[in-house]
Amino acid sequence: MERVVLIEHRGKTVLVEDFSEMHPGPDLVAAIEAAHQVITAQPPRSVLALVDVRGTRYDAGIVGALKDVTVRNAPFQLALVAVSRASGRSFRPFPDRAAALDWLVEQ
Fold this sequence. Notes:
Elements: E1 4-9, E2 12-18, H1 26-40, E3 47-52, H2 60-73, E4 77-81, H3 97-106
Parallel strand pairs: 2-3, 3-4
Antiparallel strand pairs: 1-2
Helix pairs in contact: 1-2
């Protein structure tokens, strides 16, 4: 299963970063970095991103990696949905992926 994919939702492109049910370690770090690579390949301020972290486990290293990549991605993203607020950016939780996608494309 691809963890980082661009999808179309109601006529808009959304980057889905599916980190759900992942645990600290190299696979999660690689998925975070893969998302960063996709984001920075896009024009500035053009990325709608949904980050699914349901059931994801964190340690200090993962929180640091998420904070770092979120700060580095800031020039590219219009909206980001996630749990961690460590980066000082605005986040919003949703009850499910469909609700998050609908909200993102309306921004």
